[in-house]
Amino acid sequence: MACSVQPSIHSTSSTTKPSSSEITISRSLTEDFVHISIQPSQDEKLSSCNTCCVVDTSGSMSDAAEIQNDKNENSGNTNLWDDLRTGLEHLSKQQDSIKSISALFLLTDGCPTKIPSDGHLVSLEKLKKNLNFLCAINTFGFGYILDSKLLEDIAMLGNSGSYAFIPDGSSVGTIFVNAISTLLTTAATNVQIIYCF
């Protein structure tokens, strides 16, 4: 799950006026699916905002597939690296043109079964240098068969993202609402402060 959000930030040379806005984020759980809705207040002046939550090139997330989701079979594989690499490549191609805060949300329900030859962290470090990606990587582990340390390390190496443990389906919506809220309220990332004496 990759997200890209462009917040509106206004300032003047003399003063910066604080402003606030109210965004309603709600979730509902129906038929084992979590639906997340983000709604700004009706009278609020909207800035341009792009949110891309799922990149589905296979068509597997269509309405027909969602209805028949109970027919999916578990192959027993978790190719964490391929999903991570694909998401970062996609986001990094567009990071210069998007001009927004980007984040990759990586959800897994198992330990990786396919591991890159250099390991996940060394491979991620190489990919980070090669792509120069600026997005944060946020990882989410669902269930109890996880490598939580690896997920936390990936998040930290991924521009200080975060890791969240999701014990069961009852907390999926809350955790994703919190993650999206954090992303929507982020004004800047990869900030460098230079002190001049």
What this model shows, in words?
- The chain is of the alpha/beta class.
- The chain has a domain at 103-109 and 127-145 and 161-185.
- Helices cover 30% and strands 20% of the residues.
- The protein contains five helices and six strands.
- It has helices at residues 63-67, 80-98, 120-131, 148-157, 172-184, and strands at 2-5, 23-30, 33-40, 101-108, 136-142, 163-166.
- A four-stranded mixed β-sheet has the order 1-4-5-6, with helices on both faces.
- Helix 2 packs parallel to helix 3 (120-131) and helix 3 (120-131) packs parallel to helix 4.
- The protein is globular and about 55 Å long.
Give the overall pLDDT as a whole number.
Answer: 71
Tally of individual helices = 5
Which H/E pattern describes the elements? EEEHHEHEHEH
Cross-sheet strand order for the largest sheet: 1-4-5-6
Beta-strand portion reads 15-25%
Q: Gap between N and C termini, in Å? A: 43 Å
What's the quaternary structure here? single chain
Helix percent reads 25-40%
Rg value: 18 Å
- Low-confidence stretches are 1-25, 45-59, 64-72
Q: What's the β-strand tally? A: 6
**What shape does the CA trace take?**
globular
Helix-strand makeup class:
alpha/beta
| Main β-sheet description | 4 strands, mixed
